[in-house]
Amino acid sequence: MFTGIVEELGHVVATEDLPDAARIRIAGPIVTSDAKHGDSIAVNGVCLTVVEVENDTFTADVMRETLVRSSLAKVAQGDRVNLERAAAVGQRLGGHIVQGHVDGTGTILAREKAEHWEIVHIGLPPQLARYVVEKGSITVDGVSLTVVTVSEDQFTVSLIPTTLELTTLGHRLPGDLVNLEVDVLAKYVERLAIPHLRAIAGEEAQ
C-alpha cells in the first residue's frame, strides 16, 4: 500500500523489451537507500517489485497487463518518474489509500497558471468517470490529489508549488498521458451496492 506522497523524482536509466513484458532500471537514491529484492516501489503510481538494487538504482519487470493499462509502456531513458516506497505500518497517512494498481490513463488537456498554484485539466476515461467526485481523492502519476471539479469526460486538480517542483506533474504538457488510480473505496462501495440495487429494481418491476 502507498499514500500518494511522492518521495523523490527519479529518472529512467535504461529500458529493455522482453516477450510480453519490459524491464526498466530507475535511479532514485532515496527509495533505494533501504530497498532490497522483492520490495514494492511505486513508479508514476504503478506498484512494481524490485528485482535488483545496484548503487542508487533498482530494476523492475513490467508485465503486459501493466504496459496495456499504464503509461509505463512509453517511458524511455532519461524520463523523470515519481517514486514512492510502500507505506510502513504506523506511519502517518499523508495522502489516501493508494494500491499502486493503475485503472487507466488520462490525458493532460490544459493548464491554468495562477500566482501560487496551477489548475490542471485531465481527460477522464468513460469507465472511470463514475468513481470520481468533487473533493474526492484521485491518484495522478502516483500523486494523491483532491478533485476540484469533475464532468463526464474530464476533471481538474489544483497543484501547489511543492507538487509542481517535486513531481512529474510540474513538467507534464497538454497531450501527455498520466496514470490514474481512482479511490479503491468507491469501487468496493459499488461492488457491494449493485446486488441490493438490482434487488430493489426487481421488486419495483413486479
Automatic annotation (TrEMBL):
The record ties this protein, via Gene3D superfamilies, to: 2.40.30.20
What PROSITE patterns does the record tag this protein with? Answer: LUMAZINE_BIND (PS51177)
Tell me the ranges covered by the Lumazine-binding domain, including all copies.
Answer: 1-96, 97-193
Which pathway, metabolic or otherwise, does it act in?
Answer: Cofactor biosynthesis; riboflavin biosynthesis; riboflavin from 2-hydroxy-3-oxobutyl phosphate and 5-amino-6-(D-ribitylamino)uracil: step 2/2
Lumazine-binding repeats mapped onto the chain: 1-96, 97-193
Provide any one GO MF term from the record.
Answer: riboflavin synthase activity
Q: Please write the reaction equations for the catalytic activity of this protein.
A: 2 6,7-dimethyl-8-(1-D-ribityl)lumazine + H(+) = 5-amino-6-(D-ribitylamino)uracil + riboflavin
Keywords from the UniProt entry: Repeat, Riboflavin biosynthesis, Transferase
**Biological processes annotated in GO:** riboflavin biosynthetic process
Enzyme Commission number(s) from the entry: 2.5.1.9
Which InterPro entries does the annotation name? ATP_synth_asu-like_sf, Lumazine-bd, Lumazine-bd_dom, Riboflavin_synthase-like_b-brl
Q: Looking at the Swiss-Prot or TrEMBL record, what is one Pfam family this protein matches?
A: Lum_binding
Any idea what job this protein has?
Answer: Catalyzes the dismutation of two molecules of 6,7-dimethyl-8-ribityllumazine, resulting in the formation of riboflavin and 5-amino-6-(D-ribitylamino)uracil.
Subunit info here reads: Homotrimer.
Q: What is this protein called?
A: Riboflavin synthase
Q: Which organism is it from?
A: Lentzea atacamensis
